[in-house]
């Protein structure tokens, strides 16, 4: 079968080739809404990241720590796009819903590392030691929850029958995105955490030095 996006693209191509010069066509109803939603996908993804950032900033009482969590979100989007492209799918509204879901899933894995690293820092460890210990301690929970979720979306990836293209589109996006989040999150979240914390500590030291001089 073909997705709705592929079908509309094929129809548009046929219509452009057959309509006389000067005549145009417009989509209505569900297809029109899908086209409009496709144009706003990037803005919706950015809004989801912004909302997640504000929630994390309130939770951590810090403007810097949320960056260590959310910098992995673009990697989840890239992994999902690659998965959709490899599978021959298209960027329809169900794929875009999968992209938004991945923001929360990507943040979830990173939070497990950042929360434990933050606690280790409060106990006196430096950022690098803290995040390495946190990564070691949270490796198994992250892998278990990630693989459980990935296994849970396999039925969507392998869906058949009526409406299968909708479930398939979302399943592929989330499946590929979670694989990327699991791999890149374990490798890059500690790096992001160390960079963000060192920048924050340098800034705090400059502020303290300035206050002492004043």
Instruction: Give the topology string: H per helix, E per strand.
Output: HHHHHHHH
Low-pLDDT residue intervals, each spanning 5 or more residues: none
Strand residue content: under 5%
Radius of gyration from CA coordinates: 22 Å
Within CATH, the superfamily of the largest domain carries the name: Multidrug efflux transporter AcrB transmembrane domain
Tell me the major beta sheet. none
Amount of helix: over 70%
What is the CATH class designation of the largest domain?
Mainly Alpha
Structural class label = mainly alpha
Between the first and last Cα atoms, what is the distance in angstroms? 71 Å
Tally of contiguous helical segments: 8
- Please tell me the total number of domains: 2
Q: In the CATH scheme, what's the topology name of the largest domain?
A: Multidrug efflux transporter AcrB transmembrane fold
Beta strand count: 0
CATH architecture of the largest domain: Up-down Bundle
Average pLDDT, rounded to a whole number, is: 81
| General shape | elongated
Describe it.
This protein has 8 helices and no strands. The mean pLDDT is 81. It folds into 2 domains: 1-39, no CATH class; 41-208, Multidrug efflux transporter AcrB transmembrane domain (Multidrug efflux transporter AcrB transmembrane fold), CATH 1.20.1640. The chain is elongated, with a radius of gyration of 22 Å. It has helices at residues 4-18, 29-39, 41-60, 65-70, 73-86, 93-122, 127-157, 164-213. It has 214 residues and is mostly helical. It starts with a helix and ends with a helix. Helix 5 (73-86) packs antiparallel against helix 8 and helix 6 packs parallel to helix 8. Keywords: Membrane, Transmembrane, Transmembrane helix. The chain crosses the membrane at residues 40-58, 65-87, 93-114, 142-164, 170-196. InterPro entries: Acrflvin-R (IPR001036).
């Amino acid at each position: 079968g073909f997705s709705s996006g592929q079908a509309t693209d094929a129809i548009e191509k046929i219509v452009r080739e057959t309509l006389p010069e000067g005549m145009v066509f417009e989509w209505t109803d569900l297809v029109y809404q899908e086209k409009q939603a496709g144009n706003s996908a990037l803005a919706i993804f950015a809004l989801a990241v912004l909302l997640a950032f504000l929630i994390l900033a309130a939770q951590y009482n810090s403007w810097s720590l949320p960056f260590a969590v959310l910098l992995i979100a673009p990697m989840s989007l890239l992994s999902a796009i690659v998965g959709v492209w490899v599978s021959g799918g298209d960027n329809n509204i169900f794929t875009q819903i999968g992209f938004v879901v991945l923001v929360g899933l990507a943040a979830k894995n990173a939070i497990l590392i950042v929360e434990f690293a933050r606690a280790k820092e409060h106990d006196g460890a430096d950022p690098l030691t803290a995040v390495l210990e946190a990564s070691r301690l949270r490796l198994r929970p992250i892998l278990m929850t990630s693989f459980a979720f990935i296994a849970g979306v396999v039925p969507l990836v392998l869906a058949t029958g009526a409406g299968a293209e909708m479930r398939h589109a979302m399943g592929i996006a989330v499946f590929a995105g979670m694989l990327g989040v699991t791999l890149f999150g374990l490798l890059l979240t500690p790096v992001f955490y160390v960079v963000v914390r060192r920048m924050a500590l340098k800034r705090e030291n400059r502020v303290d030095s300035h206050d002492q001089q004043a």
